[in-house]
Write a structure and sequence with these properties.
Shape: globular
Bound molecules: nicotinamide-adenine-dinucleotide
Strand order of the largest sheet: 9-8-7-10-12-16-14-15
Number of helices: 11
Number of strands: 17
Order of helices and strands: EHHEEEEEHEHEHEHEEEEHEHEHEHEH
Structural class: alpha/beta
Distance between the termini: 7 Å
Length: 348
């Protein structure tokens, strides 16, 4: 008779269903605010993290990436894809799951869905950066690209930065209609626009979040006035960008982890001498953020492993005392650690 797995074999698994219950239980805006603070707290101890550009497996249709990091006590990785042509086939552009583990034993601590969690953490990261770099008293944001990430982005900018109006634009009007419907009860003033130019009218924060495996030009230089913060999150892969390079020439550019962004971000269009500031240096006081009201600040976001680490640790800490998880016996744990074969044999 197979024996029941030992307590060491089990870890919490957060399914998509449980992640949704979790978000509704605590409230999405509260989670976005707390997640923003958790991500920022880890950016403030940047030196503690092991950092490498993510490992990417490219194919004609998209990319599959592994994103590992560790602070010496915990280790995490995320598996995530990016397939812009997926939505036309009924699949999502981005889907993910991830794992948190102990460094001392190497044993996993938690396995979770991360498709929803990526949308939350990407929005929280955008809001974290915007609250330090956007012009003071920003109330209006443009949201260009109204796909899976869009509503999360708008809600984080509302909850963390105090945005009151979101101006939506997508080349596909049905995506804009979907986002406007979903944000109907959010407390935001929602304006549906018919061009990117119209969407950025009066906006102090411009978010681009489109998906196309191409050097796209969502914004051209003549469209962008002074005194705005651009939150460019859709260009996140070699050969996949959103901004005309002339905008980069005028902007002061902030990145997550420079070696990864040079490969994947908007700045892949610029030569290696193009100056960028890693955002953690603004938090530590080593570098200046926005220095005057007329500047164009650009957050060239690609998504970095520490943000997922922070999100995983945040979820793990909030799981205690809840039932938003199942226990799964992910680890073979023989009574005698060296008798793995005996454990298998006794299960026959
Ligand atoms: N930086 C990060 O941390 C991060 C995290 C998650 C996703 N992303 C990236 O963000 C992008 C969007 O992700 P998603 O999950 O919302 O994708 P999605 O496919 O659900 O939505 C993308 C939307 O962009 C629209 N679009 C495409 N070209 C456009 C154009 N020229 N003008 C206006 N709209 C256009 C599409 O119609 C679609 O509605 C992807 O490229 C993804 O890789 C980045």
């Amino acid at each position: 008779m197979p024996t029941a797995p030992s307590p060491l074999a089990y870890i919490p698994f957060v399914s998509v269903e449980n992640m949704m219950r979790f978000v509704h239980h605590f409230g999405i805006e509260k989670i976005l605010v707390e997640l923003t603070d958790a991500i920022e707290a880890d950016y403030r101890r940047w030196d503690r993290f092991e950092k490498i550009p993510r490992l990417a497996s490219h194919s004609r249709d998209g990319v599959i990436e592994l994103m590992p990091t560790s602070d010496g006590e915990a280790f995490s990785f995320k598996y995530v894809n990016g397939h812009p042509s997926n939505t036309a086939k009924g699949f999502q552009t981005v889907a993910a799951f991830g794992l948190l583990a102990r460094v001392d034993t190497g044993y996993p601590l938690m396995l979770t869905e991360m498709t929803l969690l990526t949308a939350l953490r990407t929005a929280a990261t955008s809001a974290m950066v915007a609250r330090h770099l956007a012009p003071g008293n920003a109330k209006v944001m443009a949201m260009i690209g109204n796909g899976a990430q869009a509503e999360f982005q708008a809600l984080a900018m509302k909850a963390v930065v105090g945005i009151e109006e979101v101006r939506l634009y997508d080349i596909d009007a049905s995506a804009t209609a979907k986002a406007a419907r979903n944000l109907g009860d959010s407390g935001l003033r929602v304006v549906s626009c018919t061009s990117a130019q119209d969407a950025i009218e009066g906006a102090q924060i411009i978010t681009t979040c489109t998906a196309d495996k191409a050097y796209a030009t969502i914004l051209t230089d003549n469209m962008v006035g002074s005194g705005v913060h651009i939150n460019a999150i859709g260009g996140d892969c070699p050969g996949k960008t959103e901004l005309h390079k002339d905008i980069l020439s005028r902007a002061v550019t902030f990145v997550e982890f420079e070696p990864q962004t040079r490969i994947e971000g908007e700045i892949q269009q610029m030569d290696a001498s193009y100056p960028v500031t890693e955002f953690w240096r603004v938090l530590s006081g080593d570098a200046e953020g926005r220095s005057d009201a007329r500047q164009i600040t650009l957050f060239d976001s690609v998504g970095f492993a520490t943000e997922d680490f922070s999100a995983l640790r945040y979820i793990y800490s909030k799981l205690q005392g809840t039932d938003f998880f199942q226990q799964i016996d992910i680890l073979a744990d023989p009574d005698d650690p060296r008798d793995l074969f005996g454990m298998l044999q006794r299960a026959a």
